[in-house]
Each structure stands twice: as structure tokens, then as C-alpha cells.
Amino acid sequence: MTGDSVPIGRRVAYLRARRKLSQQSFADRLGKSKSWVDKVERGVRSLERLSTIREVAAVLRVDAATLLGRDVRSVELVERAEGIFKVRAALSAYGMTNSGLVACRDASPDQLGRAVGHAWTTYQHARYPQLIEQLPVLLTGVQRLQAQESGAERTAVVEAYRVTAALLVKLDEASLAWLAADRAMSAAIGDPVLLACAAVQLGQVLRASARSRSVMLAAAYRIAPADPNDGTPQELSLCGSLLVQAALTAARAGNDRDAGGLLNEATEMAMHVGDGHDHHHTAFGPVVVDLARITAAIELGDGKRAVTQHEEVVEREEWRWLPLEHRAAHLVDVARAYLQVGDVITAARSLLLVDNIAPSEIRHRPAARRVVAEVAQRADAPTTITDFATGLGLV
Q1: CA dihedral of 241, 244, 249, 250, whole degrees rounded to 10
Q2: Which residues form a coiled coil (predicted)?
Q3: Looking at the chain, which terminus has fewer C-beta neighbours within 10 angstroms, N or C?
Q4: What is the mean pLDDT of residues 114-127?
């Protein structure tokens, strides 16, 4: 039932049957009559309005592309591509005209600061489509405010580029993420704390590069207190976050010893910070370091260790204090660990949980979609995940 020549009505009938819905119950959920459903499925009535197709897809728990045909990209992915195009255009603007700086008397550092705070909240709640819509306006405001060269807006400018880079990393837009992180670093020059803030996102962008470890360590030790007991929670959060980034880079390179040593340093700092904080939008604390240890184990191919540590961490109350984005991303990583130990059922449960608590993490993050496809393609994959992957157009 996946051929592009199959009429949309037959797709609806097939997917409804797979969901074990009668025509009447399906009609009730749509707010339509049973006769309407019957006519759609027999091809007597066509589905032409995009809003109606989305409603039908939502009830069937499938991607709209499944109804429209495999050669048609999902509406969500099309909208994301359009949003990224606008973000790229905004990042390419410099607030300049042929006659010089653009007048920007309407720009306000306070307004920009509030907009940046809202953007971070949107990101941490894993509402990526909404953030994509916000960023072009936010970045335009950044460009205008930078044109004033007042210096008062520096923190807001750095944070705006940081949250942009964080989202673009999620969306696998590596070149744009690099550009945003580089803009953050440039805006932070001369301020060690802001440089460390920007370096956190730079570390995410460059995690696959061995050179990034030295960059992270240089930024970390520049702001590190001589004695952790003398450091502020803000300083320790930044320094510890940078050590975590460096450790994950080491783990990806297969260097277990260096990764462990850096995480031990980060643990010492995390103990002084405690859990439940979000200094400089890092959420740094003991639980974050523990999650980093799990990710490092996965990168090193030690699924057994990762699973054991994960099952201990999620029993702690502090796990629930983390931003939703962080928890969702971790659960996607842990699905890989369960695959490493051959537990396909629990890997599937982890991914379905992510879709339940933070659907955008699965539906808009390419790395997560790849994990869903990998789990669904296993011979012993449960029907719940194969149906889910089919709905997303992944298998």
C-alpha cells in the first residue's frame, strides 16, 4: 500500500484498518459522518484541502506525506525547509546598505533580550517549528541592534546566535550552525564569560572534529577558578559544560581515557553547582554530567554500561528537572544503547516516549529519524515502531 499510484482514499482505508478503527469511530474522531468516511475511502469524495488532510493524518497518527504519496515530502518538512531558507537569509544580512549603516531607532536592547529569552524557552521545550518561525525576526533585530555599535546589546546578541546555532545543530544544518556559532564568538570577543557561552554551542557544532577539543578546553580553563570552591555557579556551569563537550568529542574519537578524565573534572564542578539550575542556558549539574557519561559510553560502543547507567539516572527526581529538549535528546541516544545490547523492544519504547513528550525531537530532527528507521528495520522490531516509522515515511 505504499505505491504512489494508490488513491488517497485507499490509503486512508488501509491506515484506518491498521489502527483498528471502524469507519464510525474514525468519523467520530474527525467530527465527520460515517457516510463521509465511506465516500472518501471509495474515492467518491476527494480530499483536496490541506487542512483536512492534516486532520485525517493526525487521527491516523501518520505523516501527511503518507496520504499524499511517497514522492511528496511531508508538509512539516516542507515548512521546515522554508523556515531554514528564511533563517539563512537573516544570517546573510548585515544591516548595511550602499550608503552605510541602516537606521535602527526602533531597535531596543530590552525588547531583544525578552525575545531571546522566549527563543531559549521555546528551544528547551522542544518546539522547533515555532522557533524556526521566530528566528528570522530575532536575527533581523540582532543585525539592527549591532549596527548601533552601542555595546549594551552584546549579551543579547551572543545569546541570539547561540540559540540559533543550537537549533541548527538539531536540524543537521551544519554550515549554518557553524555560521551562527562563529557570529556568537565574534560578538563575544573581549568578554571571557560570553566567549565561554558562545564556545558551548561551538562545541556542539564541531563535536565531530578532533580540533574542537582543544578549543573547548582553552575556553573552559580561561574562566575556570583555581579552586572549584571559589568559583561561582555561573562560572562552574560554563566551565563544566565545556569540559563535557570536550569529553564527548574524545569519546567520539574512541578515546575512553580522556573522556573519562574530563567527565571526572566536570563532575567535581557539578557537585558545587547542584541540579535544577540553568545558568547560561546550560542546565549544568550532576545529572547532566551523568547523561554525558551515558552518551560517551554509547559513542564508545559500550551499550551495556550505558543502559545500566541510564536506568539508574531516570529513577532520580533530578532527571525530571532537566529541560524537555535535553531529556528527549537523551532518550533518542539511549535507544541506540538498547540496540547495541539487542533490546529492540525497549529501544522502540524509548523512541515512542520521545514522540509522546516532545514530538518535534523525532519529527524534525534528522538524527532521531535515522534512529527510528534503524529500530524499525530490525527483524524483531515491534509493530508499534514499524507502524510509527511507516507513518513518518521512513520505511
Answers
A1: 150
A2: none
A3: N
A4: 96
